[in-house]
Write a structure and sequence with these properties.
Helices cover 27% and strands 18% of the residues. With 458 residues, it is an alpha+beta fold. The protein has a four-stranded antiparallel beta sheet with strand order 14-15-16-17. A three-stranded parallel beta sheet has the order 2-1-6, sandwiched between helices. The chain has a two-stranded antiparallel sheet with strand order 3-4.
């Protein structure tokens, strides 16, 4: 039940062979609901109101897109009245409810209302997903009655939240009493960190209620404690909204008798910082910006309900699902099948995980044209996180890093981080320390080799 948001240099995102295309080639019905690929222009689509230009190639039938603008309007070609529009639509009662709550038409970073869940994308998405699973369940029962096999299906369900804006009905905010919310423990940027590593919370500072309060000092974001606490509470509440509707989808799998023969994957496409290191948002190469949830459940899985500390990447989901489905592997995949780890949580399939993020707005610079914007590459091993910020050639013909124009280097120790709170880690950049010179050299070589190999530039 997924599609991928991979590392750009590792996948050649402009021309990649997607999981959905693989399923198409093997005649498996594949349906998309919610927010899977990034919507609209960012993924090659003509408007902001649909899921992107991938749609004709990725799905067996019209994609049920469902996102939400910051002013509470749900986002789809149907809601925005495009010809032959599809996707989610808010009822007039929902619009009136948001109007009465005073949130309709007002971009704000957080809000709670008495409006029902079905007024939010999460409720609309889960309703459609449950409808689809009811259909697949009926088809399976028909096949069983005829002593035949039901047709396999692939269902990708993408929930929006906890993406900004952090909005949910009152009942989810009520789960988190004010006295249960605390501030981030490590609210200062890491000592010795290069300025280019700091995102300065650009997205959340674009909301008027935050912009009027937040300031940038020493490349980190500062805001009043009361606002920070409210934002953290709203984030947790948004997570609970999505969690509740994920539960409805899983309940539908059970009630339709589909759980025992369905592969289920839960994952997120990025992490998030809620004031840690003076950052608010996802656009960093720190652990909290790149570490994502990943849960896999498969029929006949040898180890269930266990955790693994192995290094893995979202790139690994494609070959893992292909293996679990018994399909032939696609050629030239960068990911590795995670079946060895599903069989044995102590197993490993790779020595490191890589992420990357560009930095167009650099602290202390008046403006950086895209052609000179640095790219941040980071690798995580069991003991270290190593990051390099280098100049990048953004030519569509041959995008590539320029390794001899380094604008910043970071090294963070992670010994013991698997068993401890992340608040205790990545608070000191030790890359400049001479005693770690050999570690920096070794990780630099591995990073360069991995990027060059992934992008075919060995």
């Amino acid at each position: 039940m997924l599609s991928l948001k991979p590392v750009p240099d590792a996948t050649d995102v402009w021309h990649h062979y997607s999981l959905c295309l693989c399923l198409y080639c093997h005649m498996i019905q594949h349906v998309g609901i919610g927010k899977i690929f990034h919507p609209g222009v960012a993924s090659g689509g003509p408007t902001r109101d649909e899921g992107g230009a991938d749609m004709p190639y990725s799905w067996s039938e019209p994609y049920f897109f469902c996102d939400q603008f910051t002013n509470d309007t749900v986002q789809s070609t149907a809601m925005q009245d495009w010809p032959n529009g599809t996707g989610c639509v808010q009822s007039q009662k929902c619009i009136e409810c948001f109007e009465q709550a005073g949130t309709w038409g007002h971009p704000i970073s957080l809000a709670t209302t008495d409006c029902p869940d079905e007024c939010y994308p999460e409720g609309l998405i889960s309703n459609e997903a449950v409808r689809r699973l009811d259909f697949y369940g009926s088809k399976q029962r028909e096949a069983e009655a005829a002593n035949a096999e039901a047709e396999p299906f692939f269902l990708a369900v993408g929930f929006k939240r906890p993406h900004l804006a952090f909005k949910a009905p009152h009942k989810y905010f009520d789960l988190y009493p004010n006295d249960s919310i605390s501030l981030a423990k490590n609210r200062n940027k890491p000592t010795g960190v290069p300025d280019v590593a700091m995102y300065m919370s650009g997205e959340i500072r674009g909301y008027p209620d935050v912009k009027s309060l937040a300031t940038i000092a020493n490349c980190q974001t500062e805001m009043p404690d009361w606002k920070a606490l409210n934002l953290r509470k709203a984030y947790y509440s948004s997570v609970s909204l999505t969690d509740a509707h994920l539960g409805l989808v899983l309940d539908a799998l059970d009630s339709n008798g589909l759980s025992n023969n369905t592969i289920i994957v839960l994952w997120g496409d990025h992490g998030y910082q809620l004031g840690e290191h003076g950052e608010w948002g996802k656009c960093t190469n720190f652990e909290l910006g790149t570490h994502v949830p990943l849960i896999i459940s498969a029929p006949n899985q040898k180890q269930r309900g266990t955790k693994s500390q192995a290094m893995v990447e979202l790139l690994d989901l494609f070959p893992t699902l292909v293996d679990l489905a018994g399909l032939p592997q696609a050629p030239d995949l960068q990911g590795k099948s995670l079946i060895p780890i599903l069989d044995d949580p102590q197993a490993t399939v790779k020595e490191m995980a890589m992420s990357q993020f560009p930095r167009q707005v650099v602290c202390g610079r008046k403006g950086t044209p895209l052609s000179h914007s640095p790219m941040g590459y980071t690798i995580r091993t069991p003991l270290y996180r190593y990051t390099e910020w280098v100049r990048f050639n953004y030519s569509l013909a041959e995008p590539h890093p320029i390794w001899d124009e380094v604008q910043g280097t970071e090294l963070y120790l992670h010994t013991g981080s698997a068993e401890s709170s992340m608040d205790a880690f990545e608070n000191e950049n030790v890359a400049p320390d001479p005693k770690y010179a050999a570690v920096v050299k070794s990780l630099h070589d591995k990073l360069v080799a991995n990027v060059n190999r992934s992008s075919g530039r060995e």
